[in-house]
Amino acid sequence: MEFIWLFFIGLIANVLGTIAGGGGLISLPAMLLMGIPVHSAIGANKVSNTISSLSSFIVIYKYKEVTVKEALIVMPLCLGGGITGGLIASLLTESTMIVIAVVLLSFALLSSFLGSSEFDGNRPLVINKKSGFSLFGIGFYDGVFGPGSGTLMMYVLSHLGISYIRAVGLARIAIFSSCFGASITYIATGKIMWAVTMALLLGSVSGAQIGVHLARKLKKEYVKPLLRIVTIALLIQIVVTNL
Hints:
Blueprint: H1 2-20, H2 24-33, H3 38-62, H4 68-88, H5 94-114, H6 129-144, H7 149-159, H8 164-188, H9 194-217, H10 223-241
Helix pairs in contact: 1-2, 1-9, 2-3, 3-8, 3-9, 4-6, 4-8, 5-10, 6-7, 6-8, 7-8
Membrane topology: Multi-pass membrane protein
Main location: membrane
Family: Belongs to the 4-toluene sulfonate uptake permease (TSUP) (TC 2.A.102) family.
């Protein structure tokens, strides 16, 4: 029965995560409530998100809505961030990461109201120092903790003038990269419970496929309100569970 629950947790989390980020809002707290150790829960999320994110990127790439060239720009930054985050995860306390999460999500929420971008641009992806640091930083945060990283990635891509479906594709390859980097460290340190991870993985891949097809049909004017709702829910969940 536990593995069935994990399958559906992975499915629901990745439908939400693909559309607007925030899948960790569902998966990580649910796994902790099931009594799964925190490092094993995070590690299971990293491994399952590695595969599910890649699978959803491939679907978007198949429809020629994002290019390999753009993916190769994003991947090294997020991979480096994910590896770095995974390596030093044990050095940062949980309370420190909670503070970082709240600050980043609050800033993203505020900037979404101040910014003019509504995923209506179609600019080529150009990385400068500011955006490069942002992508590396989100990859680092994803490697250490995770919930909200996909949502933060969507905000960054929105401000770069990337259209919604391209942003979904690039966010997925970014999450693939950071989770792949983090997964290496969690596997190497023996934190992975493989039966738990595989059950979550099967649900995650299924949810990612559903999510990417829904994303292709979602009207752009609904995206920012949805991102704001997910961000507020993440903030409430993080603060309430750690009071």
